Amino acid sequence: MRYGSYGQDIEFESNSAEETAAFGMKLAQAARPGDVYCLHGALGVGKTVFSQGFARGLGITEPVSSPTFTIVQEYDGGRLPFYHMDVYRISDSEEMYEVGFDDMLMGGGVCLIEWADLISDLLPDKYYSVTIEKDSVRGFDYRRIEVLTKGGEL
To answer: Nearest to residue 112, comparing CAs of 34, 11, 1, 45?
Structure first.
């Protein structure tokens, strides 16, 4: 079974930023054109670290940062185009059309969307939901990462 394949829900426990990035990298290595990953988690939980690992898993070598102010960063240097979105500052989901969201969904690449719940009305029927949570009882660097598949078969 392909690691992270559609229909296979995953729970992962990370004890360091390196492990969180490595998990993102493994997921990306299994990513296919058209895959959409919706990334959920509080501020400071490690979404950017996960995203950086995800980019490395696609073969992207340039620096990756959260596109909080630009909304979208596009990376073409990997095996698939990578559309990294941070929609935290979106006030209305319709604004996503102004940045070419529908073109990115159909662009043959992989979309990773931080704060995707803010544009839930625009998400495709089938996508991966990735939730990162801290648990201070388990340690400062501990993260629980859950990957759920939403919708029918891809």
So the answer is: 34
